[in-house]
Design goal:
Radius of gyration: 22 Å
Number of helices: 12
Strand content: 15-25%
Largest sheet: 9 strands, mixed
Number of strands: 11
Shape: globular
Order of helices and strands: HHHHHEEEEHHHEHEEEEEEHHH
Structural class: alpha+beta
Distance between the termini: 26 Å
Length: 358
């Protein structure tokens, strides 16, 4: 829970005025501010009723907060653009980090909910969000999001209508959605940043790897062990098998790092060369981490890969402390509104001490 002193509350209002300046109505901007304050100051689960109680608002405040997120027709893209500029200005990021957010859901009516493997939990029901974060030595914060929509959501007219999925949306892999997020951040403040991404559970990464290569972006991507690569000798094999079988679990060993030059097995062109890095954990664990990169400096590659530890901690904090998992709504627009507000609340909590209002 974030404590808002009178001075901090004044600074928060200035932040809200800057971030939501393009919302057309004064009542929208007012409820945007109330929602951010509720996310910051409400302990535990961020339900609409609990936030309204903490804010000391009218008995109908929870309905107004629900209306603002789920039905009010404001555009989230300009808010996120302003948030990215805010973070770039106040926190000097050195990388753009992409990671998967698995948001558990009960029932089957919330937009995008589906059954899949959730790392560390097994098979479960969730929404899958892809977060784009700006990160530096001492900070990391989300500035943009994509919601993954499996085919059954896009192929069912009734489901699309019920959850207000835009007609223009078509089926995309998580790799393609991640590339769209990179393109959305391709402006003067972030265009030169290396891209670090966790796609160790992605179903497809070739579109992302080749897209980043064509855009001349440096990248370090955690990839699945099943990713097919070509060795310098021309052999094709899953990346997880490149260094042979893992050591026996009953024989403790220290961590080991190795890199190899590989290409992707593409059907109609010769892939550029990439570096595949592996780190085998200590104590004989059978799970090795794998990263694919076009960064040649091994030390720098490893340092950038460490940003994924930061993003994992951040996503856990967003879910447990800032309310990422507490969205009370089912629509596509509502989900995007909500994660935008969660992102803004967290960014403010991390940078408010740096900010002096005009």
């Amino acid at each position: 829970m974030y404590e808002l002193t009178p001075q901090r509350q004044q600074q928060l209002r200035a932040f809200i005025a800057e971030l939501f300046v393009e919302l057309p109505r004064a009542d929208q901007r007012r409820w945007a501010g109330a929602y951010l304050e509720g996310l910051l100051t409400t302990p535990g689960k961020k339900t609409l009723r609990r936030m309204a109680d903490i804010l000391g608002a009218s008995p109908t405040a929870s309905q107004s907060l629900h209306q603002f997120v789920n039905a009010s027709p404001w555009q989230w893209e300009p808010v996120r653009d302003r948030l990215a500029h805010w973070m770039s200005k106040h926190a000097a990021p050195d990388s753009l980090v992409l990671d998967m957010a698995y948001i558990p859901k009960r029932g089957s009516q919330s937009c995008g909910v589906h059954t899949r493997y959730i790392p560390g939990q097994g098979v479960g029901s969730c929404q899958l969000g892809i977060a784009a974060m700006l990160a530096g030595r001492d900070h990391i914060a989300p500035v943009d999001w994509a919601l993954h929509l499996p085919g059954r959501w896009l192929d069912d007219p009734a489901a699309r209508s019920r959850t207000r999925i835009p007609d223009c949306l078509t089926s995309k892999t998580t790799g393609r959605q991640a590339l769209d997020l990179v393109d959305a951040q391709d402006h003067g403040l972030t265009a030169a940043l290396p891209v670090v991404g966790n796609f160790s559970c992605a179903e497809e990464i070739t579109s992302l790897v080749m897209g980043l290569t064509m855009r001349s972006r440096e990248f370090v991507l955690a990839v699945p062990a099943t990713t097919l690569v070509q060795t310098e000798r021309g052999n094709t094999a899953p990346a997880g098998q490149l260094w042979g079988q893992d050591r026996s679990a009953d024989r403790p060993t220290p961590p080991a790092m190795a890199t190899a030059t590989v290409r992707l097995p593409l059907p109609q062109m010769i892939s550029p060369e990439y570096q595949l890095m592996t780190v085998r954990p200590s104590s004989g664990s059978r799970t090795a981490q794998l990263w694919l990169s076009n960064v040649r400096d091994r030390r720098r590659m490893y340092q950038l890969a460490g940003r994924l530890d930061d993003s994992a901690r951040l996503l856990g904090h967003l879910a447990g402390q800032v309310g990422l998992a507490d969205f009370e709504g089912r629509s596509y627009h509502g989900w995007h509104h909500y994660v935008t507000l969660v992102s803004a609340a967290y960014a403010w909590s991390q940078t408010s001490h740096m900010y002096e209002p005009a």
